[in-house]
Design goal:
Low-confidence stretches: 9-18, 66-71
Radius of gyration: 31 Å
Distance between the termini: 90 Å
Largest sheet: 2 strands, antiparallel
Number of strands: 2
Mean pLDDT: 75
Strand content: under 5%
Order of helices and strands: HHHEEHHHH
Strand order of the largest sheet: 1-2
Helix content: over 70%
């Protein structure tokens, strides 16, 4: 019985019998197809974005016609997207980053305070308290002492709520249960801050 051919001899036979020239590999043959697919994908994406923008613009125009001349339209929406400032409920223009940080503090602190009432699960309460701590640290780290917001009603109310919380825990200890009067005072400060955001 003859010996089986070695793998090298089979490989050389297969490569010599292929109709493809030796300098052209399978990968280089697929290259133009991939480029065509990429070009087609880019064109399809661009067309999809243009169609979406046109549909949005049409809806915005229709909404403007219904509302009258009260809105700025599509151009105003695009400007507000790139504008670093935002108008509050009270009509003041404040930095978007400040408003987002302040809203996050209000949301997480309120959830943390309400979580304590809703469930006796201390682990769930600690998770909520930890997220509130993180948002408070980020808020104070980024906005404490900033003249652009220091005199704002929302900043004063948030600072008052945070100070009340800190004073209680510094006196009673980190694991103390928050009494109802302190909690209500903090919630009132949070509501006042939210009204100005």
């Amino acid at each position: 019985m003859p010996a089986p051919p070695s793998s090298m001899s089979l490989l050389s036979r297969c490569s010599s019998s292929s109709p493809m020239p030796k300098h052209q590999t399978v990968d280089s043959k697929r290259q133009p197809i991939r480029g065509a697919r990429l070009l087609l994908t880019r064109r399809a994406t661009a067309l999809y974005l243009l169609a979406g923008a046109a549909a949005t613009a049409g809806r915005a125009r229709a909404a403007e016609e219904v509302e009258g001349a009260g809105g700025e339209g599509v151009v105003g929406a695009i400007k507000s997207l790139f504008d670093p400032n935002e108008e509050t409920k009270a009509g003041k223009v404040l930095p978007k980053a400040y408003l987002e940080a302040a809203r996050e503090v209000v949301r997480t602190l309120r959830e943390s305070l309400e979580e304590k009432d809703a469930a006796g699960d201390s682990a769930k309460f600690r998770r909520g308290a930890d997220s509130a701590k993180v948002s408070i640290r980020e808020f104070l780290g980024g906005w404490r002492g900033q003249q652009s917001v220091a005199k704002e009603e929302s900043y004063v109310a948030l600072e008052k709520a945070i100070r009340s919380l800190a004073e209680f825990y510094s006196k009673a200890g980190p694991f103390a249960s928050l009494p109802g009067d302190v909690k209500n005072k903090i919630l009132d400060d949070l509501n006042a801050a939210e009204a100005y955001l």
